[in-house]
Specification:
The complex is a heterodimer. By secondary structure, chain A is mostly beta strands. Chain A is built from no helices and 12 strands. In chain A, 0% of the residues lie in helices and 53% in strands. In chain B, the strands form 2 sheets. In chain B, strands 2, 4, 5, 6, 9, 10 and 11 form a 7-stranded mixed sheet that branches. Chain B has a 4-stranded antiparallel sheet with strand order 1-3-8-7, with no helix packed on it. The chains are: A mainly beta, B mainly beta.
Chain lengths: 116, 118
């Protein structure tokens, strides 16, 4: 079974600075997706960024980028120019591509605080 | 974008009663929906996968007789917590799958339901 580990329960960053959230995962599969989701105080889960394992290029979405290291099974999220609205819980998630599986396996989350 | 609406946002019920939570895909058809449970300061744990027109697939350890799931149409899945007890108090979140093309799919989440059993 796949597992996702987020080793940082909490992180903080100054507004306009850069922060990196860590995520590692364990799988025996070679083809899969990785995601970062944001859960603000409203509790609505929002997709931040997605990476397909077969793509070597790291995904980027505006101020959000990932460092995907497939061999190390590492998938960190970098938030540049942090804004107050970035404060939230961030969850790393894994999804297999095998057999049309749609199950998302989540890490325990990292609470990000943005200080003004 | 795709919108998933969950209702109610919060509910308080008495111990021993049943409560139904609805999950609707507003602008797309969802053949598959997912129900998660989230304890305070914890991650989301998948409870079951709901497939339109067929029985739900429950994760190990989830009581199917306690958490009844019905996916009667392509836009609605319901989760009924039967004979609720205080330990069932939690945050329940649904998600629905959007199929962009033959290969690419994406999950969109409802806003969640906070259930408190007193």
């Amino acid at each position: 079974a796949q597992t996702v580990t987020q080793s940082q329960p909490e992180m903080s960053v100054q507004e306009a600075e850069t922060v990196t959230l860590s995520c590692t995962y364990d799988t025996s599969e070679s083809d899969y997706y990785l995601f970062w989701y944001k859960q603000p105080p409203s509790r609505q889960m929002i997709l931040v960024i997605r990476q397909e394992a077969y793509k070597q290029q790291n995904a980027t979405e505006n101020r959000f980028s990932v460092n995907f290291q497939k061999a190390a099974k590492s998938f960190s999220l970098k938030i540049s120019d942090s804004q107050l609205g970035d404060a939230a819980m961030y969850f790393c998630a894994y999804r297999s591509r095998k057999g049309g599986s749609e199950k998302l396996v989540f890490g325990k989350g990292t609470k990000l605080t943005v200080n003004p | 974008g795709a919108v998933v609406s969950q209702h109610p946002s919060w509910v308080i019920c008495k111990s021993g009663t049943s409560v139904k939570i609805e999950c609707r895909s507003l602008d797309f058809q969802a053949t598959t929906m997912f129900w998660y449970r989230q304890f305070p300061k914890q991650s989301l744990m998948l409870m079951a996968t709901s497939n339109e027109g067929s029985k739900a697939t429950y994760e190990q350890g989830v009581e199917k007789d306690k958490f009844l799931i019905n996916h009667a149409s392509l836009t609605l899945s319901t989760l009924t917590v039967t004979s609720a007890h205080p330990e069932d108090s939690s945050f329940y979140i649904c998600s629905a799958r959007v199929k962009w093309d033959r290969v690419n799919t994406e999950a969109f989440f409802g806003q969640g339901t906070r259930l408190t059993v007193v």
